[in-house]
Write a structure and sequence with these properties.
78 residues, mainly alpha, 0% strand, flat
Length: 78
């Protein structure tokens, strides 16, 4: 995931490690039409890792979500 050495050097070590493990989680995630407990747990791990990366890199405040996306997320159930 972090193949560019210049990019690696700009990130703190913890962030680089988190991005690498995030990439591993994404690559391992199977795209299928089944909703089961394992898939939900994997998605929660991916979401948690994303939150860690945005917090470490200081990107959390610069993320922009549309009101429509937020409402759709709140109304989602499965």
């Amino acid at each position: 995931m972090l193949q560019n050495e210049e990019l690696k050097s700009k990130l703190p070590a913890r962030a680089a490690k988190s991005v690498a493990s995030f990439g591993t989680l994404l690559e391992a995630f199977e795209l299928k039409n089944l909703v089961d407990e394992d898939m939900v747990q994997e998605l929660l791990r991916i979401r948690a890792k994303f939150k860690v990366i945005t917090a470490i890199t200081g990107l959390r405040e610069s993320l922009v979500y549309s009101e429509e996306d937020i409402k759709a997320h709140k109304d989602m159930s499965f």
